[in-house]
């Protein structure tokens, strides 16, 4: 049951994320709107990074993508950290769109596992996965605000 509920929540919020991604043009992905610290490129990359952390842990255990994404999109990073190896928006889009298929393969037992270390007061894998859905929903709201500011530039 926990798996079904988590997949429903993750899929719902991921559809919000990819729907918004589809509405943003490439130029706006890289602009930092007035009043914000990051670009939409960074925001989408951050969401992908955090979901990749969980997806790798509950499915294939391959953390290579997470390590790369965390370098550019982890907490405390910014577009100032970008270089030639930063995942571009097309790569981020592919990762975002691929998570749910990978998560379908997670085993219910894995969700009951203890985390290797406490994560923001959480000790079980299912708690962390649930938190990631909340985290992504919060960032979707921020990205919607950013898009609205970008869409209204120069409009009086």
TrEMBL record:
The keyword Transferase applies. Residues 10-141 form the DinB-like domain. GO terms for molecular function: transferase activity. It comes from Salinicoccus jeotgali. SUPFAM superfamilies: DinB/YfiT-like putative metalloenzymes (SSF109854). This is Bacillithiol transferase BstA. The keyword ATP-binding does not apply. It comes from the Bacteria. Pfam families: DinB_2 (PF12867). Keywords: Transferase.
């Amino acid at each position: 049951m926990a798996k079904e509920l988590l997949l429903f929540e993750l899929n719902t919020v991921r559809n919000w994320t990819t729907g918004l991604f589809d509405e943003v043009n490439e130029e706006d992905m890289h602009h930092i709107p007035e009043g914000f610290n990051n670009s939409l490129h960074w925001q989408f990359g951050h969401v992908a990074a955090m979901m990749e952390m969980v997806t790798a842990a509950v499915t294939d255990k391959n953390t290579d993508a997470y390590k790369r994404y965390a370098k550019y999109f982890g907490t405390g990073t910014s577009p100032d950290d970008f270089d030639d190896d930063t995942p571009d928006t097309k790569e981020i889009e592919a990762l975002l769109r691929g998570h749910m298929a990978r998560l379908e393969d997670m085993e219910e037992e894995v969700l009951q596992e203890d985390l290797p270390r406490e994560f923001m007061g959480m000790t079980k894998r299912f708690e962390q996965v649930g938190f990631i859905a909340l985290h992504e929903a919060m960032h979707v709201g921020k990205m919607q605000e950013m898009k609205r500011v970008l869409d209204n530039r120069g409009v009086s």
